[in-house]
Amino acid sequence: MGPLVSYIVPCYNYGRYIEQCLRSILQQTYSNIEIVVINDGSTDNSEKIILQLATLDSRIRYFTQENRGLLPTKNRGVSESKGIYFSFVDADDYVPAERTQKMVEVFEKDKDVVFVYGDACVVDEKGKPIKNFFEVYPPVNGEFSVEMFAHYCFVDFSASMFRRSAFDKTGPFWSLAPRGESQDYLKMMEVGLEGRVVCLRNTVTAFYRRHGENVTEGQIEKKVERYACLQKSLEEFIRRHPGLEQKIGEKRVLWRYARCHFMGGFYAGLAKRWDLARKEYARAFRLYPSFVNALAWISAGRGVAFLGYPLYRLVARRLY
């Protein structure tokens, strides 16, 4: 029997998906696992389904709490889990049967590996494949945390697994966003600074379910806020890790900050929040003067209303 692997599953009102999620973990070919389910105050039938499965398999450990949000729920999941390696799986996602075995083998062969991730297959509400995550966000070669910061998040969180000893060195999840957005992106970069990161490029290690509640095309104003908070979080990330800015390069750091405001301006324009859009584009241009896209959009003004939706779909194909 190999080392214990923990799966941490935060759940809030995903009763219609949680059974498939938990069964997919229980059916792993690697049997020495535990599933730590944190019910974050669900008001649907989530608890009933979880308890039914827990009576059938003692590897499910169930915890319930009043609604606290994703960030503290994930932190509790870490503290309640016992595995040497652990992974987070969103309650509306599910995983292939061989993934645990494949990922544990990587960790066991090299003690310097702190983080393993694979591809994710994006599926619709019924589980029909749409495309793979790496088709949209191909992994970037180079030092993991440097390239993740400088480019974009090219890892689906449910498709990853951590070595506990490395994860614990980085402390709890954090984010400067009010709802904890981007906490997984920040955490993966932090853990990546602790050792080697291995990408299983040709292996799907999670199925990411795309449905009406996680595709936020209609929540444009929240996106503007999210990108502004991401920029602040990235600044804080650099502050917490002295020397990283030199590795990344000052220009690439500023470009990354500017891109956050450019995307905020883009979505503000789609919401016809013209004053906010201009402010966000101006911030992008001030941070990175050669960010010519921002200048073009500032001068375009309300022209975004005409071009907005087609361009939005173009960008959305990259975002989702």
Q: Count up the helices.
A: 14
Domain module tally: 2
What level of helicity do the residues show?
A: 40-55%
The main sheet comes to: 8 strands, mixed
**How much of the sequence is in beta strands?**
15-25%
Question: Could you say what the CATH architecture of the largest domain is?
Answer: Alpha-Beta Complex
CATH class of the largest domain: Alpha Beta
Shape: globular
Q: Quote the distance from N terminus to C terminus.
A: 38 Å
The averaged pLDDT comes out at 89
**What structural category arises from helix and sheet content?**
alpha/beta
Could you tell me the radius of gyration in angstroms?
A: 20 Å
Query: Which ranges are low-confidence, i.e. pLDDT below 50, for 5 or more consecutive residues?
Result: 301-320
* SSE ordering: EHEHEHEHEEHHEHHEHHHHHH
Beta strand count: 8
Quick description:
The protein has 14 helices and 8 strands. It has helices spanning 15-26, 46-56, 70-80, 99-109, 133-136, 144-150, 164-169, 183-192, 220-240, 244-248, 250-270, 274-287, 292-300, 304-319; strands at residues 5-11, 33-40, 60-65, 85-88, 113-123, 129-132, 160-163, 196-209. Strands 1, 2, 3, 4, 5, 6, 7 and 8 form an 8-stranded mixed sheet that branches.
Task: Write up what this structure looks like.
By secondary structure, the chain is an alpha/beta fold. The chain contains 14 helices and eight strands. It has two domains: 5-209, Spore Coat Polysaccharide Biosynthesis Protein SpsA, Chain A (Alpha-Beta Complex); 220-319, no CATH class. Strands 1, 2, 3, 4, 5, 6, 7 and 8 form an eight-stranded mixed beta sheet that branches.
